[in-house]
Amino acid sequence: MTLNFPNESRSYDARRNVIRFWGYDSALEVSFLVEVNALSKPDPLAGDLEAVYLEAFDAARDRIYDTARKVYARTRDGVCLLSAADF
Questions:
Q1: Quick one: which of 10, 17, 49, 79 has the most CB atoms within 10 Å?
Q2: Structural contact between residues 38 and 82, judged by C-beta atoms closer than 8 angstroms
Q3: How far is CA 34 from CA 8, 18, 45, 48, in A?
Q4: pLDDT digit string (tens) for the chain, length 87 residues
Q5: DSSP readout, 19-83?
Q6: Predicted TM-score (pTM) of this structure
Q7: What is one Pfam family matched by this protein (predicted)?
Q8: Residue 3: what are its φ and ψ, rounded to 5°?
């Protein structure tokens, strides 16, 4: 299994309070969700939480990808949720 992340796109889902991103196991697309509380606690005075969360994701991208690989190797699910406990 070689899980790659060639697409650096990510998006904030305010309804679920997660950051979405995608990886690929060969031709199979795998969706990942990272709970925002797994990233960092935002400054309560921060105006645009989406920007804060996406910046936190970008800062921890390598760690998130490593964690995503571990979770995917365990579950092999098409959608993987990464929580604070996974880090």
A1: 10
A2: yes
A3: 14, 5, 23, 18
A4: 589 999 999 999 999 999 999 999 988 999 999 999 898 776 666 678 888 899 999 999 999 999 999 999 998 888 999 999 999
A5: EEEEEEETTEEEEEEEEGGGT-PPPTT-S-HHHHHHHHHHHTHHHHHHHHHHHHHHH--SEEEE-
A6: 0.88
A7: DUF1488
A8: -95, 120
> Could you give the angle at which helices 49-59 and 61-75 cross, rounded to 10 degrees?
80
Given the DSSP bridges, would you call strands 79-82 and 3-4 parallel, antiparallel or unpaired? unpaired
Is residue 67 within 8 A of residue 87, CB to CB? The reply is yes
**Dist. CA 79–CA 13, nearest whole Å:** 15
Q: Which domains, from first to last, does the chain contain? A: 3-86 (3.30.160.140)
